[in-house]
């Protein structure tokens, strides 16, 4: 949990609400936070004095004086961000305004262990920091999205699937020592959810964002804020048991997990068993786009399995939207299958106004989310 999340109504929280589009004026903040107007004004003035907010222009009147509009000031402060996949590393710099700079991606196999991965990250991020400073920007921190469970309190990786050597690795502290900057580490689905919400769904307060790629996971936005749960495990649908998986062994050590029948890795393995070359979610997407029948069938079945698990989530959590991200979200049969199962299995009250859609923020969503998570620490101490 970040410092910003621990203090509802703080200056950090106010800045976060303006940054994510939830509030555009002092009156909006009063309604959103339930605080006295004088308290909100004090928080806003603190942020204006710190150079993080500006207040100009006029919004629509609701019966009184037209409110002055708040916006995040583009002060040049950025966080370095890295979105790690099992087969790639994507880096860039993220500003408070949501802009991304110098985004690059390269192939890399994280299963080689933490040592080589950290060396590459330090090299890439140090170079990125140099380019930001040369452009006149101030580097304030680092955000890392990791494809596995992360303890948010310690910044350690916890028992990631198919990644030997990473268990209990102190990724946050190691990178902070090497880079000389504060570092925030979260799992990739939380970063995806945060980035997608900020970039494309700022007006929504409750949503579930699913990442369907080589693995499967989901991030939860509740009351407009990322919800991690007690130990950071909220949203982990990958290891929910499903009937279709029967007794299939899973990398977590259990049997019958959703991951074994609906992940990109599982689909690729099934295709290879049929003599069809496929190694990644990108390969699967290409096969579906070219009408390969086995790939299309497997992707549609995966969508139904994911939808079955999400139907429980939707009935329980009652979100405004279910957003499907990750490489496999580009396969329309998967999105259609998830949508069909949700409408079939969920209560009408839960689906009558539910939006079910593919992610809109694109491949930078996780990067943006990692950057925003790092900037939360800046928001907690704006001076």
Report on this structure.
Helix content is 42%, strand content 20%. With 383 residues, the protein is α/β, with parallel strands linked by helices. The strands form 4 sheets. Strands 5-4-3-6-9 form a 5-stranded mixed sheet, sandwiched between helices. Strand 11 and strand 12 form a beta hairpin. It starts with a helix and ends with a helix.
Helix content: 40-55%
Rg result: 21 Å
Strand order of the largest sheet: 5-4-3-6-9
Strand content: 15-25%
Q: How would you spell out the order of helices and strands?
A: HHHHEEEEEHEEEHEHEEEHHHHEHHEH
Q: Note the gap between the termini.
A: 21 Å
- Oligomer status: single chain
Mean residue pLDDT: 91
Count of distinct strands: 14
- Major beta sheet summary: 5 strands, mixed
Q: Any low-confidence stretches, pLDDT <50, length ≥5?
A: none
Class inferred from helices and paired strands: alpha/beta
Shape: globular
Supply the number of helical segments.
14
Briefly, what is this?
The chain is α/β, with parallel strands linked by helices and 383 residues long.
Which short descriptors sum up this protein?
alpha/beta, globular, five-stranded mixed β-sheet, 383 residues
